[in-house]
Design a protein that fits this description.
Length: 139
């Protein structure tokens, strides 16, 4: 049952992307998403330099989005505990990457009402941000 729902959501997403992009670009985007490793991380721009990042880049989230290629889970490293990166699926990185092409966040206040844990708000943060989530299970 869960797989059927996921397939339906995938089809809905593809149709939305076709409406926004041309069909060829939508197919290319879907293929890129399918090829990405589901484990990916977004490095904290304040805590690491881009020359430190050795993993395969997420094409739509340069230079800080990276595929996780290590055997150990990303949540089990000293760097994760130290805040050097946070875990974020490559598909979630797409939203801010796309919006940042038309909005300069540096002089904006970002209000993320669904921050759980706040990856997109952190990705957008160049100015001020307020991150809220009313879902107690995700606090």
């Amino acid at each position: 049952m869960a797989k059927k729902g996921k397939t339906k959501r995938t089809e809905q997403f593809f149709k939305r992307m076709e409406n926004i992009l041309c069909s060829k670009e939508a197919r290319e985007l879907m293929e890129a998403i399918r090829q990405m490793d589901p484990k990916s991380v977004h490095f904290n721009r304040k805590r690491c330099e881009t020359d430190e990042l050795k993993a395969t880049p997420v094409p739509w989230c340069l230079p800080y989005g990276r595929c996780w290629e290590e055997e150990i889970p990303p949540s089990r490293t000293v760097e994760y505990v130290a805040g050097k990166y946070y875990i974020q699926e490559a598909s979630a990185m797409l939203a801010i990457s796309a919006v940042s092409q038309v909005i300069d966040f540096s002089d904006k206040v970002v209000l993320d009402l669904t921050a759980a844990p706040g990856g997109k708000a952190t990705q957008a943060k160049k100015g001020s941000s307020f991150n809220l989530n009313i879902n107690r299970k995700k606090r």
